[in-house]
From TrEMBL:
Keyword Ion transport on entry: no
Keyword Membrane: yes
TM helices/strands, residue ranges: 7-25
InterPro entries: Polyketide_cyclase/dehydratase, START-like_dom_sf
Pfam families: Polyketide_cyc2
Protein name per the record: Polyketide cyclase / dehydrase and lipid transport
UniProt entry keywords in alphabetical sequence: Membrane, Transmembrane, Transmembrane helix
CDD domains linked to this entry: SRPBCC_1
Length: 178
């Protein structure tokens, strides 16, 4: 009985330590990737300023071709909204709405993954020689949930490769148009 009591106390101490340490972890998760595309920003902007156009280069849609997509609002710019639903947990269910659009410069979107939380994604377009550097970023506020804060440490590993693949797809698409 004494051994069980000791094991129980040790487990409680470990759980409390993990919870306590979680509040020392970052309160937000950030992911960012960049690529240089051999094209002017004006040639790239339409592909990041429309949820319909992102279908052409999205790194996630190839994971589940059965993903159900629906669009509302204008075809591009602020208010353009994508809703998706997939049984594949790597695709999931959610919405993404363009909340800010600066022609040939930047786009910000609000993401809502339902119970999985919310985030803001962005695209920054910056001239670089004869091309354009495209930076795709993601920020999610993790709140005070200890589990979310521990998961936030993994966000770059989970999302970074997808961002790289998406940017490569975008580069191939845009450069193939020229």
């Amino acid at each position: 009985m004494r051994l069980i009591k000791r094991i129980f106390v040790i487990l409680i101490v470990i759980v409390l330590a993990l919870v306590g340490v979680s509040y020392l972890l970052p309160g937000k998760a950030e992911v960012s990737r960049s690529i240089t595309i051999d094209a002017p920003a004006a040639a790239i902007f339409p592909y990041v300023n429309s949820m319909q156009e992102t279908e052409k280069w999205s790194p996630w849609l190839s994971r589940d071709p059965e993903t159900k997509l629906s669009y509302t609002g204008p075809d591009a710019g602020v208010g353009n909204t994508l809703s998706w639903s997939s049984e594949n947990p790597q695709v999931g269910t959610g919405t993404q709405e363009i909340i800010e659009s600066n022609p040939d410069q930047s786009v910000r979107t609000a993401l809502d993954f339902g119970p999985m939380g919310t985030a803001v994604a962005s695209f920054q377009l910056q001239s670089e020689g004869s091309g354009t550097q495209v930076t795709w970023g993601f920020v999610s506020e993790l709140g005070m949930n200890p589990m979310s804060r521990w998961m936030g440490l993994m966000m770059d590993k989970w999302v970074g490769a997808d961002y790289e693949r998406g940017l490569e797809n975008l580069k191939a698409l845009v450069e193939g148009q020229g």
